[in-house]
Amino acid sequence: MYIPRFLERTIEADLFKQKAAIIYGPRKAGKTTLVNQVVKKLAEPSISLNGDDRRDQKILEQLDSTAAWQHLIGNNRLIVIDEAQKIADIGLKAKLVVDSLKDVQIILTGSSSFELGNRANEPLTGRKFVYTLLPLSYQELAAHYGSLEEMRALDDRLIWGSYPALVTDLTDRERILEELSESYLFKDILTLEGVHKPTILKNLLLLLALQVGSEFSTAELAQSLKTSRQTVDKYLSILEQAFIIFIIGAYSSNERTEIKKRKKAYFYDTGILNAIREDVTPLSMLSGKDIGGLWENYLIAERKKLLVNQSFGPKQYFWRNTNQVEIDYLEVHQGKMRAWEFKWNHKKSIPVPTAFSALYPNASFATIDSSNYSEFLLDYGQ
After folding, report:
1. pLDDT of 31-86, one tens digit each?
2. Rounded distance, CA 260 to CA 249, Å?
3. Triad 68, 71, 74: Cα angle to 5°
4. 172 plus 319 within the same structural domain
5. DSSP 85
6. Would strands 263-267 and 315-320 be described as parallel, antiparallel, or unpaired?
7. What is the number of structural domains in the chain?
8. Is 227 in the same domain as 320?
9. Which residue range forms the structural domain that includes residue 219?
10. CB-based contact 334:362 (threshold 8 Å)
C-alpha cells in the first residue's frame, strides 16, 4: 500500500528544469517508492540503476562522457539512480547529464547525506534541487487515514514508529523493526568513512537512546564512553548525517541566568529509538517517566518532519535557566518566538513559567498533551 508523501508534488513540479533532483533520507524511508510513483505519473520513458548493485556500479563508473551517457540512455528521458553515494564521482557524472542532455532528467537518491553530499555538492552547485525524505510524518498519515484514525494509532506510533513497513504491515513487527535498525541503518553508519571505532559509535547511540530528551555536553559523553571529545563530535555528526538523530541547542539571549552550551538529541523515529534500547514494551505497561521521554521525542521528531516537509525554517531550541526552570521546546523565526511544554497527561496543563515570560514577554506559550497534539503537528505557523 502506498501512502502519498508530501514531497511528491514538490518534486514533480521541479522536474525537467535542467537540474538534478537529489533525494536524501534513511534507508527504507520510502525514497524508491516515492520516485517510482513520480515516474509512473509522469509516464515518461525511464531507466533505473542501483548503487548497491555491483553490475550497475560498474556501468555507471564507466560513464565519463556525454556520448557514453547518450548510448546508455537511448530514448529515455528519466534516469533514476538509487543509493547514488556508492558511485565514484557521481556528481561529475550527473553534471554531464544536466549540462549536455537538456531534455533528460536525472534523479539521485542517497541514504547518507554525508557521502552523497561530498560527492555531488560541488560539481552540481547551482544545478540541483535537494529534498529530504524522512519516515512517514503525522501530517502524511493523518491525510491518508484521517486525523481521528491516526490519533487512535498513537500508542502504536510511539512504540513502533512510522517507517512505511511498520505502518502498513502489522504482522511480525518486532522482527521487521530489528531488521530495519540492524541490517539497514547500522549497515550505512558503520561503513561510513571515518568510523574507526564502531563499538564506541554503538555505545554512543545507546547512551543517547537511554537518556533521550536529557541535556548533554560533548565532554560528558566523552567521559562516559572513555574516548575523546573529537571522536564524540565526529560520531554525533555522522549520526545526524545518516538521519538517525538530530540535535537541538539551548536558547539564550546572553542573559547570565540562562544555560547556553547544553544540547539535546532526539531520534527521527521512535521505533528506531525503542529498537536501540531493545524495549518495545506496550505503552500501557510503561512508567510515567518512560512515557514522558518517549512522548517528548515523538512530538519534537514529528514537528521536525513537518518543518522539513514544508521547507519552513524556524530554529529549534529548548530553554533552561540556572534555577532549573525550563521550557521543553522553542521555535524562533523572523523575530517571533513560540514556546511549548509537553505533558502526556492532559489533566496537567501548566502556566508559562514566570522566569521565562519575564525575559520573553512576547513569546507565545502552550501546553501540548495527548488530547490536543494534532494541531501542533499540522500547523507549522508560517
Report:
1. 999 999 999 999 899 999 999 899 999 999 999 899 999 999 999 999 999 989 88
2. 8
3. 140
4. yes
5. G
6. unpaired
7. 2
8. yes
9. 146-376
10. no
